[in-house]
Amino acid sequence: MPEKKSSNPEFVYLSLWLLMFASSSQFLIISPILSQIGEELKIAEALRGTLMTAYALTLGIVALITGPVSDRIGRRKVLLTGTAAMAISLAFHQFAFNYSSILIMRVLAGAAGGILTGSCVAYIADYFPKDKRGFANGILATGSAAGQILGIPIGTVLSEMFGFYAPFQFFSIIMIAAFFMILFFVPQPKVALDQSKIELNSIVKDYFSIFSIKSVKTITLGYLLMFLSVTVFIVYLPTWLEREFSASSYEIALLFFVGGLATVLAGPVSGRISDKSGRKNIIIIANLILVLMMPLTLFFLDLGLVYAYPLFFVIMLVMVGRMVPFQALASEAIDDKSRGRMMALAISIGQIGMAIGSGISGYIYTEFGFLGNALIAAAASVAMAVLINKYISEPKPVLGEELAG
Fold first, then answer.
1. Residue 15 in contact with residue 181, Cβ under 8 Å?
2. Which of 287, 295, 293 shows the shortest CA–CA distance to 371?
3. Who contacts 348 (Cβ-Cβ below 8 Å, separation ≥6)?
4. How far is CA 187 from CA 28, 81, 84, 332, in A?
5. At the topology level of CATH, where does 9-188 sit?
6. Could you give the CA distance from residue 114 to residue 119 in angstroms, rounded to a whole number?
7. pLDDT in tens, 165-221
């Protein structure tokens, strides 16, 4: 494959944006068409949720392997491999004929997602200077948000018109476009690569070497808490609105559309602000705002369901305002040769946080109501704020210094 030497940053933005849009859309579309997949393939209702679980678990495992590999061969090659793998796996969804076959397709898509997830963020830190990384991460966040705003409606319509496999084919085409954009317009950044061999033993040692550092533990634990707080709060929010306020499916869909708009706005803005004023304080302030906003949801919605829209807009605004600077902070806090494994570790731990949040949210909601979910999510946000305040310093890249030492 040709090695692109230089590129216009706008083309890099567009290439990575397309990648994020297609990747997030193909994951998000599963939820609204899950019942259709189950009916067309005659999958028992109890087994349908495992299609999402299989994807997430595979993504986390493969991301751990891909991180150290990208440190050795370069992020560009990994992005090309990941986009090609995702495009092929999505195209193959049309051949699914039963539960086992669609499960295999989702495992393959999860593997492709694992190749892409950490490498995309790490590439930004490789390619862009420090004062532009927050904004670049914000652009990526808008790609994910567009999956929520545009990807889900487009995918749902295609699914209704042609069958459950149609949206996956559509997003496969978008991923092919991303592949060729990366091939022709995205260069390999001039960063030092790890010269050690790609062996399982060396990969395991890579993770032990960085996870022994206190600040690496802090960032990975921060990812766990961040994903846990989001999941505990959001998973049962629609159920609560439906049961307590008789919200319709249309009103729930509109709520998440509003949340997607907030993400589009907050991503670049929070990234740009963190580029100018630093990451740490924005992350802490955003967490503390969420501590107040999440429990107050119950109070405001007692005034009427209409307040859910501006409230959810603000909450998503702050959630993304927390995530983008934290993502930039994590990616730039370690040296070039270790960045891939750092981001892979953080994102995999984040997946664990999501799994924990999904697992406990139902029990909390059943036993304590949605107030319990809001309080647990707020507690996780407090813990994250304390953690970042105590153990992360700015502006120096503390992880790189510790590794050098």
1. yes
2. 295
3. 60, 61, 63, 64
4. 29, 14, 17, 19
5. Growth Hormone; Chain: A; (1.20.1250)
6. 9
7. 999 999 999 999 999 999 999 998 888 787 777 777 777 777 777 777 777 889 999
- Using an 8 Å Cβ cutoff, are 128 and 136 in contact? yes
CB neighbours of residue 47 within 10 Å: 11
Residue 258 near residue 265, CB atoms below 8 Å: no
Residue range 304-338, pLDDT digits in tens: 888 889 999 999 999 999 998 998 888 776 776 77
CATH number of 206-404: 1.20.1250.20
Give the long-range contacts of residues 219-222, CB within 8 A, separation 24 or more.
219/329, 219/330, 219/333, 219/342, 219/346, 219/392, 219/399, 220/345, 220/346, 220/349, 221/349, 221/387, 222/326, 222/330, 222/384, 222/387, 222/388
Structure tokens at 254: 């509109």
pTM as predicted: 0.75
Residue with tokens 């030497």: 5
- What's at 113, amino acid-wise? G
Write down the domain spans for the chain. Answer: 9-188, 206-404
